[in-house]
């Protein structure tokens, strides 16, 4: 994380799990282009992937780290963090993922997970393991109106169209928080690319029950940012092998629903 601190006036309870689990972009009432012909955009912090690509060991490692952090299982998170660092995650990568957890699962689980990362890195250092510290964002995070503009642009790029709808008309403050903080403060941090952030988010939401609309939205966004259908099937396989069957089932159902939309079939 950089030394830039977010405006504490925005960090109200609405911005914990409600940031992405109950409002706007991730609600069935939100409106965004679902056209299969819409082409993903590729900003500098978005990587690309072809249909034959598979997830790297590092990318696979993101999924259980995010899932166990979101579910609050610290012993399993400890093991997943060790495996992730061994697989090529930097300390900065892991820290970014665990900070992002708070937008989907709340501050308590994010803070507990960050504490576990501290324990893991300290223990590894004592064993003589030199983990890659990673890097900080390459540019300052904007403030004020510039932050809201950047967040709105990021939200639109990720979704594939401007996000609006009846829910935002009913609660416009929710979308302002989403745009200025989640898509601004967090997604403007380019030391973790958008594919990695979306793999983490799918891992988090798959590990949680009752958030199927949000999981579906992030499966769609994952493919918008260049992850292939095969890679998304692989995410579900990783969940089955390293997390649990329920998480894998949720991910597979969301992917099947999204692919039905792309093919023009009713989900």
Describe the structure in your own words:
The chain has about 270 residues and is mainly alpha-helical. The chain folds into 2 domains: about 150 residues, AhpD-like (Up-down Bundle), CATH 1.20.1290.10; about 50 residues, no CATH class. About 60% of the residues lie in helices and about 0% in strands. The chain has a two-stranded antiparallel sheet with strand order 1-2. Helix 10 packs antiparallel against helix 11. The longest helix is centred in the middle third of the chain and has 20 residues. This is 4-carboxymuconolactone decarboxylase. InterPro entries: 4CMD/NDH-1_regulator (IPR052512), AhpD-like (IPR029032), CMD-like (IPR003779). It comes from Bordetella ansorpii. Keywords: Signal. It holds the Pfam family CMD.
